[in-house]
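User: what does the whole thing look like in 3D?
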Amino acid sequence: MRIGVVTFPGSLDDRDAARAVRVAGAEAVALWHGDADLHGVDAVVLPGGFSYGDYLRCGAIARFAPVMEPLVDAARGGLPVLGICNGFQVLCESHLLPGALIRNDHRKFVCRDQPLRVESTATAWTSGYQAGQQIVIPLKNGEGGYVADQRTLDELEGEGRVVVRYLGDNPNGSYRDIAGIANARGNVVGLMPHPEHAVESLTGPGTDGLGFFTSVLEGLVRA
Amino acid sequence: MARVVVDVMLKPEILDPQGKAVQGAFGRLGFEGVASVRQGKRFEIELDGEATPEAVAEIERAAATLLANPVIEYFTVHVEAGV
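Assistant: Here's the predicted 3D structure for the full assembly of 306 residues, as structure tokens:
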């Protein structure tokens, strides 16, 4: 199975995301922002970082990168897409996911090992977890406050599309402690915390993040 | 030549931590009588030609597509006179 990892100018977690893909047992395929071609990959990861310097709004310019054209079409057609941190912001700007990410309410950058609860296992990227499972993966962001209007939030909750929720202190002011969400079909998932930094115990708080990558792999193998 | 200005602001219901920080600085510096501060963005766009209704409509489309995120922001467009 081949999982693409997009590099935008200013991406910084693309290498870690590719490594997580390989640790999970898939082939990582480097995709370039300026290349409007997904090269036949079976899934795509939009990694963390500061694409285009976070100019204008986080993810606002990356949304219009050439690679996003086929990506948005493929995502609407069911291709599994995972947006991590800046990648989550890109997915919201692309309207593949509802809502937006704004500056942390306390105005400080936050970097810590973050406890989360997996709320939904009905997505391509979390099917390998147990519903309600508690995991710890790194969180690092300055603009990670998830916001949406009440109707959207109620819809997300009602349809089981809140994928992961912060446990303990809310780290960034996200509404309803939301750390990650999915589209209605469950193939597109975005989250602020970084599962790709928790796939090997040597370099992370544990291996709790690996499940995102093994989940999609198992789904692809079954399909 | 004409100049079109797009002002982008966070919607009133969206928390503006930057505005809050500026408001805090007002207080520390002794600037009084300030109830709240909201921070936004201003884009000054020089057109090749005149600000015809079509040209302004084009900028409005650009504002709605790129300059503002309608999920969290609103924008106003006006033509600046005497440029």
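In plain terms: The mean pLDDT of chain B is 94. The CA atoms of residues 64 and 70 of chain B lie 7 Å apart.
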